[in-house]
Target: histidine kinase
Amino acid sequence: MATVLVVDDRATNREVARLTLDDGGHHVIEATGGPEALDLARRLHPDVVLADVVMPGMDGYEFVHQLRADAGTADIPVLLYTANYRPDEALPLAAAYGVTQVLAKSADPDALLAAVERALHAEPVTASVDAGDVGAEHLRTVNAKLLEKVLALDASEARFHALADVSPVGIVSGHTELHATYTNPRLADITGYGPEQLAGHGWMCCLDQPHREELLHDGLPVEPVSFYGEQDLPGGRRWLHTTIRQITDEKGGFVATVDDVTAVVEHEIAERRRIAERFDSLARLSGAVAHDFNNMLNIILSFSEFTAEAVRDAVGTTLAAEQAGDMLDDLDRISQAGKRAAHLAHELLSFGGREVVQPTVLDLHAVFAEVTELFEPVLGRHVTVSVDLHPDLRNIVADGGQLTRILINLASNARDAMPDGGALTLTADNDGDNVHIAVHDTGHGMSPEVLERAVEPFFTTKPKGHGTGLGLATAYGILRQAHGELVLESSPGNGTTVHLYLPATDEPAAGSTPPAAASAGTGQTVLIADDENGVREAARRILNRAGYTVLAAGDGRAALRVARDHPGTIDALLTDVVMPHMNGPELAAALTAERPGTPVLYMSGYADPLMTDQGQLDPDVTVVGKPFTADRLLAALHATLTAAARR
Model:
């Protein structure tokens, strides 16, 4: 084991060398500079000296020169190691001082241990030139390296300032007492203070008062710390994220970064506000739906009880005309409430873009001719209507009934916006791949706040009882389902323009086909599948009364079992869409695989499971919407059977 004196002004370098030499079995003593190392060498006479080249006060060359000048230490082997010189640069001058080995500080630990072993077993060496020549060479070598380092430092500083000047965050650096000696231009932009005001403790305006006082009291923290909050600055209130790190070299100090995250925070706040508004809108929607449906259900349940009581009272008696009239009136109230509930359900499905629709190619000239005839009872005599359609207006693809509903709803809104009369103008022209329909009224218009919420379901500015708030919401949903767009333009005193954009097509418009009439069956067998007992029983009664033979099942799996057990033909499948275990489309696929050619008629008020990825019903799919009447169900079934017979 040898005693090695390590001479280096940096503690981290001494620690690295000590760990390597300890692992090699050597005893290490340390010195922080040349004078201290000379004293230790004279007193302890180490076996080997490992000295840095560049040190303040006395560099490695001067240290070796004085070590060799003392007869008591002249024979001690010396190794020089350096991070500033290349070994081949340092070796000529080192050899002149009697040093035969120069190592890079980045050398492997094994290289250092091998160099120590060589030094221990080598013959002592002396300086090869006289002191004057060595001194001159020493100065030339040191000056050349100093110039190289100064130029590199200047280039590094220029790069630092270039990077700091364009940095998106504020940068601060300074002493351990948290006094800033440098701030970049971005920090001045963020805070609104000039560089002079940010110097010293001025940069701490980026922190709130409690954190500022804590740092000034406790001093620079050892570990990096971050502070986040809103600060009142000359440039306005800003949300800042400030991180402070200690510099751990011998000089110490700190560096801090200040990131202005105001835009991010304001976006998050706005997003949270939008989410809250969506929840408020959903709360209003659910509340309004529950309110309206509860009213309708109350009518249905109450008048059902009245009718049941009247029937029970009439048992065993002859029903008088007055009693029958009261019963029929009660039943009519039930029917009207049911129709209102069905209408509300359709409006909600339209808003959600999930109503059962059958888009066709429409000629808008024909559509507007029909719709304007319906405007008079809606608008009254005080509103004038004008229509201006482009003569070469392209056809569109949409559900004609829904488009008519949109235009009548818009006319109704326009009437309410013009209580003292006014003008309603409808225009349509070609707009790229779309047809643009504009409906303009000369009413009082909408404020920006109302305009922003105008398409929310159940939002209305009309007095209670004068509107449900579903007109524009329904129009928006219908347009979205048709791959179109609805745009509102309005301001107080300037009326409102509703812009509708619908996909255009060059296909010819479909001919007007009258709806299929309800037709009596001729004994055909129809398999009904619906998991709702009441709906299934209603459909069974309607078809039985019309002369059809009915097989019924409560779900898709049961329907397949019924079909397999039935020995005769099944002329049609009438199935609900949404059912547990096996839905309608799955049942239809399984049944037609076993009984090819069986026509299928779906019954549903919710079309989503039947829609394609483009949000449209497949052309081969036929749906009768729920709730259905006897006439509508029979007409749809007759059309389905007739189409199958043609195929």
